[in-house]
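Listing S7. Sequence submitted for prediction.
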Amino acid sequence: MVQYLVALVPTFLVLAFFFLGPFNWSRHHTWTRAVTCAFVGAFALRYMFWRLTETVLPYPDGGPSFYWVWILFIVEILACVEVILFLVLMSRYVDRSAEADRLARVFFAREQCELPTVDVFIPTYNEPLDVLERTIIGARSLDYPADKLNVYVLDDQRRDWLKAYCQEKNVIHVTRGDNSHAKAGNMNNGLKVSSGEFIAIFDADFVPYRHFLRRTLPFFSDDSIGIVQTPQHFFNVDPVQSNLGLENIWPDEQRLFFDEIAPSRDAWDVSFCCGSCSIARRDAVDAIGGFPTESITEDLLTTLSMLNKGYKTRYLNERLSMGLAAENLTGYFVQRERWCQGGIQTLYLYNGPLRGPGLTLFQRIMFLPASWLVQYLVRFTILLVPIVYLWFGLLPLYFTDIADYVSHQVPLLAAYFLLMLWITPTRYLPVMLISTES
């Protein structure tokens, strides 16, 4: 009994730390986040040291179980590395709303004739009119001088009815001879027929708020800024919320990334473009030869290509548009498959995180598609462990005393759960693990 009470001491330490510290601190201060993430990271490293010295190295050499134990430990190392990188990332935070206020006062103090020209690109393929008209009307209603703003509907299905509608709404309908390179090729064709100094991009199912340009354009006062990204919010519930029947209390599947991870990435200068609801400097796009077509995730590769040229991406965490989330599981998985494939594609490209010039070591690490490469391997392995044990009798690790598990696993799980509860309130519910980082 005494040994189990002693084994619970680390868990009591975790509880005391969180209830006396972080739960009384603001999660928006970098020092509070850094201290809390370092505390959790220490428990993660303590756990991995215990795994190696107590459950792996002592395992008798020889036989299938020996190799199975090492395979599982290597997978766990990969998972631990991803957790440590997540902790490092989340240890910083930036809110750029006050900066936007300050920059806007100066940016819009100039004469109207001195304001830059802006083109709005709406790439579309097969969206119906009831979806497109909201986006087109929203773009036409942006709070910006009409002589400085042009809206381009980039129609990759060459629809006559859409051309007629665009003429009615006084927007420019653009088509091309083929659909090569999909969305990136469509936008590159838009570059050929437009000339605005800045390019705002909205997918066909996203509607900008009137003040979108008022909040984003001022950041370009800094010549090193190539893109400003804003979060994506949705009119409808996503398939996860719908399937669970918890639409009113379950956060939509993108909230963890856009509300929490993206501001932290921005604080480290590793923010990236997510395509829709963003605005780019044309000179920066021209400097990289247009929107990249080498990857199916042209938005991520646009960011990497601009970093190669010395441009940065900024993230303004304000609701400046609304759109449609994937409406069914088929659409959801098609979307995630595209993100996964595109992220992995960047590993092989000359302008990707491994080979691209001008990136710091930290930027290279943070742009690796670690979540796509590690998370699903870890989940598959978790499902595989009981099957292998029941069918073949292979133990997942060298069995130690129950008190050791209580002393090392329980405090780590408690620390990570409490960290997520504090750092991402209402945006992360650890019942179903779904990756939202592209």
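Caption to Listing S7: primary sequence and predicted structure tokens for the chain studied. The radius of gyration is 25 Å. Residues 30-56 form the longest helix (27 residues).
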